[in-house]
Amino acid sequence: MSPPLPSAVAALLDQQEGDRVLLVDDVPDNLSLLHDALDEHGYTVLAATSGEAALARAAQGQPDIVLLDAMMPGMDGFEVARRLKANPATAHIPIVFMTGLTETEHLVAALQAGGVDYVTKPLDPRAVLARMQVHLQGARQARQTRQALDAFGYASIAVRASSGRLLWQTPLARELLQLYFGTVAPQTPAPVLAWLRRCLAEMDDGTPPQEPQRLSAELGARRLSFRLHHCIGGDDTPGPNGSSAAASGDWLIVMREVSDAAVIRSLGLAFSLTAREAEVLYWVVKGKINRDIGDILGASPATVKKHLERIHAKLGVETRTAAASMALTRVREMHPQWEV
């Protein structure tokens, strides 16, 4: 798989802090019982007695897990869960329902609303703690990963391969996905999801594992690359078409943006071109025709043609192919890592 994150990031991932639990129940006795048990075991407990308060506490406190009463007056637990999962800031938080309803349709409703598990009332604190631990390990790892990536400026996202849902993203990733694709969480851009599933299919075909091919998206002279880093846990249900656990897991994707502004400046200096001539030559090297270059630069094809004629004269060549070849050779001398 991909090379590890830098050691400074890895060190931050190893840091531990008390897990935060949001406890939601409209019955004070239930809150008191569980609060004492959770506090005794070292958890930081946030409490709410209504659906509205639960949504506010979750957004502000960012708990690692939510223990949610299913039946409450006003906004019930099912609606709370749906709203938590619809909010990109809280969609990643696992929800364990607490319910006295044991009919199959109610349990199914809890899972469909976004719950990962349930415990039945009357509550046994030992059973609640045991069920929590099943889901906290993945939540803890995801939280620490987000903290590390945010701290070190990585643009990263986590995507659930089976559903295509974008589970969480760093602030920089949010900006880049909106800029390049016009999407917001929990929607994963279609090209990114298709690329992820291709990578997982290749990993599952029985051939020796190798570095998955990276995805690139371009925006003018800027390029955003996507690297599949590793599986961070997730869904136990089969993936699309009965595929393996890898194809249904949650995957960390690291993004990196590169601007070719330096390459364009280098072309201008190397061949004594104006800024606009350097841009035109850059896009010629990228294989664009005059009409496409005009669309990119906001100019007419005729204007691009005039720029290209001056470029040919300055480079001492007669064709765009010769100009592109000369420019590519010079760029690779100055920027060995640059890719067309």
Return the domain count: 3
Rg result: 26 Å
Please state the overall shape, judged from the principal axes of the Cα atoms.
Answer: elongated
Q: What pattern of helices and strands is seen along the backbone?
A: HEHEHEHEHEHEEHHEEEHHHHH
Distance between the termini: 25 Å
* Low-pLDDT segments, ≥5 res: 8-16, 235-243
Query: What's the CATH H-level homologous superfamily of the largest domain?
Result: Response regulator
Instruction: Give the % helix.
Output: 40-55%
Name the average pLDDT: 83
Q: What is the tally of helical segments?
A: 13
Biggest sheet strand line-up: 2-1-3-4-5
Give a count of the beta strands, DSSP E runs of length 2 or more: 10
Helix vs. strand class:
alpha/beta
Examine the coordinates and then state which fold CATH places here, giving the name of the CATH topology of the largest domain: Rossmann fold
CATH class term of the largest domain: Alpha Beta
Q: What fraction strand?
A: 15-25%
Question: Which architecture of the largest domain would the CATH scheme give at its second level?
Answer: 3-Layer(aba) Sandwich
Domain Response regulatory: 20-136
Pfam families: GerE, Response_reg
GO molecular function, one term: transcription cis-regulatory region binding
Organism: Roseateles aquatilis
